Structures are given as structure tokens and as C-alpha cells.
Sequence to fold (280 residues):
Amino acid sequence: MKQFRLNRLFNPISGRCFDVAVDHGFFNEYVFLQGIENMQKAVNIIIDAAPDAIQLTPGQLKYLQRTPGKTKPALVLRTDVANVYGNELPSTAFSKMIDQPILQAVRADAACICINLFSIPGAPEVTAQCIDNIIKIKTEADHYGMPLMIEPLVFRPNSEKGGYQVDGDLKKILPLVRQAVELGADIIKADPCDDVNKYHRVIEIAGETPVLVRGGGRATDEEILQRTAILIQQGVSGIVYGRNIIQHADPAGITRVLMGMVHEHKSFEESIEMMSMNQG
Fold:
């Protein structure tokens, strides 16, 4: 039954997926709201650009799922909320799972659920909470045929501009990705490493579990397109980009260009030219 839902996520020709994350408002950080102040407008723009999926929270999924028609993107439901993204870790850091996440996902006609597996310097208790969350959700996800996307994230210290700063050390990424696989992930959503030309090692460590790569912090068009081209060559099964879409001057345009890279093997040179034409 999981395969039925996975078929809605992954393109039948390329076998890859482009998921646009629009769940940043869940985490109570002012800077995360840029580009999504008006959620109805933001989601409509992404729907029109037609990625494979949109990642949303329980309170905001309505903007996608009430859209009529058969061709709208699939829903990936965010199932946990955390307070670990500020410049300083709070005295009580947490990652809490929503109530009855699988029931909420089934009722919302989600194609997948997403849950974090954090590795945060100075906050081992949050990692323990994440593992507890995954253990609790796994059996029910299997029972109802709901694919489980685990997001293993290795943080730099929060003092380095907050907890969304990627630690691209492969020696830290590889064991966390492998732990996510061992815990039962159907899909991995992981950070890029410092040298993306070595990302094949992440693919290898994940085995048969498809790996989608996060976009991380806001980057220039040239940087994000160059990185995406290399990652596709390295064998990733797709991408999950958020701020590099929703904070872009042309969210629909960059989405369409990235879709060409993910599904049609468009080169970096072709893609940057398309982006220039859109902006021209």
C-alpha cells in the first residue's frame, strides 16, 4: 500500500521527486516567514509551477488540498514541531510530534509524512526525542501504508547564525543517515555535504532507500543550480527545497527550471540560461 502513495510522489519516467517545503511557519521564527506571509498566495504560486509535492503543516495543508483537479502536487505532511532554530538553544529544547499523525495524514489524503532526526551540539535530549517520535510513528505508518520520510539533520552550533546552519561533514552526515534508514525510513531527506561531488557516499550508505536533498539556506541561482546538477549526477532521487523557492524573486520560474533538471536531465548551462530568460 505504501507504493500506491509513493507513486504519487515520484515521477514515473525519471523516478525522482521535487518536493517544495512550505512548512517553515511551524517553527516560531520570524525570519522563516519571508516569502510565506500570505500562505494562500505562496501555495497557489507553487501549485501552478507543478512540482511533484508540497510539504505543509496540519494547519496550512488546506491551501493545497482544497484545490480542485487531479494534477495538483501531492501532500507531504510535516508531523513534528521544534524550537531549536534560533541563535541560541532554549533552556528546554524540544521536538514534539503532532497528535495521531498517521490519522491526520490519512484524513488529509497525504502521500507521505515527514519527521526530523536532529543531531544538535549540546542537545542530545532532542535527538532522543526525535528517536522516540520515529519509533512511535513507524508501526502505525506501516499499518496504514503511509510512507515515512525521515529528515536527518546535522546542525552546526546554534551560535553560528542559528540552528538551520548545515554541518556538511560527511563523517557526521553518514551515520545519521544510516540511523534513519535503520529506524525504518522509506525516504531520506538529508543535507548536502561540503563537497557535493562526494554525495554518492550518502546514496551508498542509504542503500535502497531513496535520498532527497535539502536546499539549506538561501543561495544564488548559480549556486543552487550548480549544486543540483552535481547532486543529480551523484544519483540522488530528488530534492526538497524551501527557502530557495519561496524567497526567490520568481518562485514559479525557479521551480520550473529545477523540475527540468530533476526530471529531464537539463544541464546547469541550459538551466541557468532558462533562468536568465525568465528574468529578462
Notes: The chain has a mean pLDDT of 92. The radius of gyration is 17 Å. The CA atoms of residues 102 and 140 lie 7 Å apart.
